[in-house]
L,D-transpeptidase (Rhizobium indigoferae), 268 residues
Amino acid sequence: MNFLRRVFPIAGLVIAVASLSGCNILIPDVAADSPARFVQETSPVFYQPPGVDPRRVRPIPDQPVPQTRELYKTQFHQTYGLPVTNPVHMAMYGELRDADFTLPAIPVSRVQPQFLRQEVDYQTTERAGTVVVDTNAHFLYFVEGNGKAMRYGVGLGRDGYAWSGRGVIQWKQKWPRWTPSVEMVSRQPEVRPFGAENGGMNPGLMNPLGARAMYIFKDGQDTLYRVHGTPDWQSIGKATSSGCVRMLNQDVIDLYDRVPARAEIVVM
């Protein structure tokens, strides 16, 4: 009996091992003897659309890293969630009380940045205090000397109405009256009520000469061209006027205070 008690447990263990050997639990088959089969069975499976040969698909080239953010760009070149307006410009072109008038703020985010007032490097043979108008670039420079100038964006006259040359700013006026020339009245009869015989247009926010006017003379004669402000800020950088040099009202006030008496002006 003692012998049978010792033999039966061993025999049961042998039978159990034999029955489980068919499930490969104790001796798993990992195909270690076949590397090719091992790779085939363990390689990842990727999605392959029908009819697409992955060997013929070209890899996507590396894209350059963007240097500026263009997300959510609006028609006015603003990016939601990011500051896009220089606070200095907001101060320069904000609402301004001048004499009996209050100039509205200029929406600087809608003006091209190069046409906003800024000090720039400017090499010229003109002496300090001279005004230079670059009609091609739509810039007006007030020469400061030492290779520097204050630059402003300007609107100019259409082809056939512009003036160029060298003259003198012989007269300056704050909040001027506007008196259209005889030639302008003949071209635009609707401005006749503001002609010289009627005393011109009173100063004001809608006056075409704006907050300041500087009158250009040549050889002692009025050229009938002016450097002046304008309520039409959208005309800056364009050729839309009848020949004069127009500036943002906040800019023309700044220039007016800088220009000395009888300053030379060069329009080229």
